[in-house]
Specification:
The chain is α/β, with parallel strands linked by helices and 250 residues long. The protein contains seven helices and ten strands. 33% of the residues are buried. Bound molecules: S-adenosyl-L-homocysteine.
């Protein structure tokens, strides 16, 4: 059996209980070494075979999986955050489907929610935004037309931007065009939940300089929107003037 497991954003306590159990039982672990803390490996059996996928091709990863499964071994493919977001798991699953090899996907705490927890905010505030956009700027991987940051910013939804801090000037330029303003709150969380986490607050006007003066150019979430700063309406859910199914009327 192969389990794609979300390791969580960094701190080893933020993997799910199911994910930890699978790691404890695994005979083979293939982990994404550039982003997953290797402290997770302390929970593996002594004789567990460990592979760091940072130095492997997709084909090499698949070969290890297939050989292990044919030997009847339990395999964990450990991905950072939640595996379904920028995890490149689909191409692995399609290879396994072609070989009729079974697998499961175990979710994880994504870095976008971990980052929002670090700054102690809520993405979805009444009258501010009820939508969260998860996106990135194009890099070597293209972004389809219509999903350009400038277009997305026009929605004024809360945003969590992955894989983009190295390109902060272009990010800011596109967002400012979309919003029609530089006075939009931004928070950048570098290595959310790791010991060397850093949090920066600013606006589209000054966040670029702040990021550069800290030398941050990878592993950061760029959170954007008025959920970070400013007023909002309180939620109807806990409003005494509203009743709902779990809290009947007088
Ligand atoms: N599947 C992962 C994302 C993988 S893409 C998830 O759900 O979080 C890698 C990008 O995720 C990084 O470039 C960065 O933007 C973000 N990221 C991953 N871990 C992070 C962390 N601990 N803090 C901030 N951003 C992080």
């Amino acid at each position: 059996m192969i389990s794609f497991v979300g390791a969580g954003p960094g701190n080893v306590d933020l993997i799910t209980i199911r994910g930890r159990r699978l790691l404890e039982q695994a005979d083979v672990v293939i982990y994404a070494g550039s982003l997953v803390s290797n402290e997770h490996l302390d929970f593996c059996k002594d004789n567990c075979q460990i592979y760091n996928s940072a130095s492997m091709t997709l084909e090499e990863v698949i070969d290890v999986m297939i050989e292990s499964v044919y030997k009847g071994l339990k395999v964990v493919r450990l991905h950072t955050g939640d595996p379904t977001i920028y995890g490149a798991i689909r191409e692995q699953m399609d290879f396994l489907d072609a070989k009729a090899i079974g697998y499961e996907v175990v979710p994880g705490v994504s870095s976008f929610t971990a980052a929002c927890a670090s700054i102690k905010k809520e993405f979805t505030l009444p009258s501010i935004s009820q939508t969260v956009i998860l996106t990135r700027i194009e890099g070597r991987t293209p972004v389809p037309e219509g999903e350009d940051l400038e277009e997305l910013a026009k929605h004024r939804a809360s945003m969590a931007i992955f894989l983009s801090v190295q390109d902060i000037d272009r990010v800011v330029e596109k967002l400012a065009k979309g919003y029609g303003s530089y006075d939009i709150p931004v928070a950048v969380v570098y290595k959310a939940t790791w010991d060397d986490e850093e949090t920066l607050f600013g606006t589209l006007r000054d966040i670029g300089d702040k990021i550069k003066s800290k030398g941050i150019n990878k592993m950061a979430q760029i959170l954007v929107g008025n959920f970070i700063e400013g007023d909002y309406e309180r939620s109807k859910l806990y409003d005494p003037n509203f009743t709902h199914k779990f809290r009947g009327g007088k």
